[in-house]
Amino acid sequence: MRIKTSNSELMKTLSNIGKVISSKPIEQILSNVLIRIDEKINLIGTNLEQGIECVLEGEINDLSDGVREVVLPFSILRDIVSKLDMNDTTEIELSSKKGVIKQKNASYSLNCFNPEAFAILPKIEEKLSFSLNLSFLRFLIENTIFAASKKEESRKEFKGVLIDSKDGFINFVATDSTALALNKKQAELPEMSFIIPWRALDIFSKIDTGKDDNVKVISDGNSMKFMLSNLTLISLLINGKFPAYETVIPESFEYSAEVNKDDFLKSLKRVNILASKGNERINLTFSNGFVEIESASTEVGEGKEKVQCNANTEISIQFYSEKLINGIEHVPSQTVLFGINGPLHPVLIKGQDNDSYVYVIMPQKPSE
Q1: CA dist., res. 218 & res. 225, Å (int)
Q2: What DSSP string runs through 218-236?
């Protein structure tokens, strides 16, 4: 069989597929891409936990040999395609033994692998389904996944994002036990509660679709499928119990403070340069008029800055700097509000007159 397509379209498709293909797969066959021909040209990649199937726009010719599926080495195919002319057409001749990539005077022959050894993406029974706008879904993802744990040794629930829909709202929640991010948006959806790996959502948010679209999401309770017009992402769900996040969020505060987001963030990032490497911490001392930001390293030195602040008390609190900076960056307002109950109690961070994003962070003991 032969297929002919725009090289730029082929490169975009391979880039999307590559988001699930590991450079060090647990099985060698998972470092490959499956090309399947039915009525369309389908490219499939998987790492067993997540899988992507993309429809490649192009022509299908000469199916007389009966070959409908071939497996090619992904990284080599991608590297060849990336070096070809993006403004030209690429032709791929496929047989059970060889895949030949052609463009102008260039020709590259790759050995094929047995498609029967390739992991098939699971079929998902549609027990639950809903649709969301792609931009809306990406917004929820990008403003939540940063708070999930990236450590392999963490509890599995902490390596996921809770998608919780009830009472006319959809909540995206992530935590690593020391900080929690909640994004809450109005959406008339069926009631549901799933934990999906943060990596699956990260992959989906970075997919190049070329346009805004609606995403159909279906689930059978074990897996979740995100469906666009020319791309499908499937991921296993995390079977576990997510922490009762609503009980973690403080409802009242003894002290409060507010700062300008841009000024505060710039100072945080500058002062953080002086924090001890491997144990980056920042100390905040709130007072009426200013918040003093301070960090120090015995090897390098110390840094201090003051930023204008409105506060109803004087209190000093220490945080892991990366977690504090990440939380502040996603506040959807130019005024950042702090809700404080003491130097070792959870601190709530949100935007002024905006409850759609809430961030809760645990302070650290200064002596640690």
Answers
A1: 5
A2: EE-SSEEEEE-SSEEEEEE
CA–CA dist 132, 170 (Å, integer): 11
Angle at 166 between CA 161 and CA 167, to 5 degrees: 145
pLDDT higher than threshold 90 for residue 276: no
What would the mean pLDDT of 92-98 be, rounded to a whole number? 91
Nearest CA-CA partner of 97 in 83, 80, 109, 79 = 109
10, 57 contact by CB (below 8 A): no
State how far the Cα of 183 lies from the Cα of 170, in Å rounded to an integer. Answer: 8
pLDDT digits (tens, 9 = 90+) for 63-94: 767 778 999 999 999 999 999 999 999 999 99
Q: What are phi and psi of 355, to 5 degrees?
A: -100, 10
In this structure, what are the phi and psi dihedrals at residue 73, rounded to the nearest 5 degrees?
A: -65, 120
Helices (H), the chain: 7-17, 74-83, 134-142, 198-205, 245-248, 261-272, 321-329
Residue 37 one-letter amino acid = I
* Structural domains of the chain in order of their starting residue, each with its CATH number: 2-117 (3.10.150.10), 128-247 (3.10.150.10), 249-361 (3.10.150.10)
CB-based contact 310:288 (threshold 8 Å): yes
Residue 213: which residues within 8 A CB-CB, separation 6 or more? 133, 134, 228, 229
User: Are the C-beta atoms of 193 and 99 separated by less than 8 Å?
Assistant: no
Rounded Cα gap, residues 36 and 45, in angstroms: 11
Average pLDDT over residues 131-139: 95
Backbone angles phi, psi at 145, to 5 degrees: -65, -25
| Cα–Cα distance measured from residue 144 to residue 139, given in angstroms and rounded to the nearest whole number | 9
Residue 354 has pLDDT above 90, yes or no: no
Whether 213 has a pLDDT exceeding 60, the answer reads: yes
Q: Which amino acid is at 321?
A: S
Give ∠ CA 245-249-251 in degrees, rounded to 5: 140
- Residue 19 predicted with pLDDT over 80: yes
Residue 72: which H helix or E strand, with range? strand 69-73
The encoded tokens of residue 301 equal: 């030195």
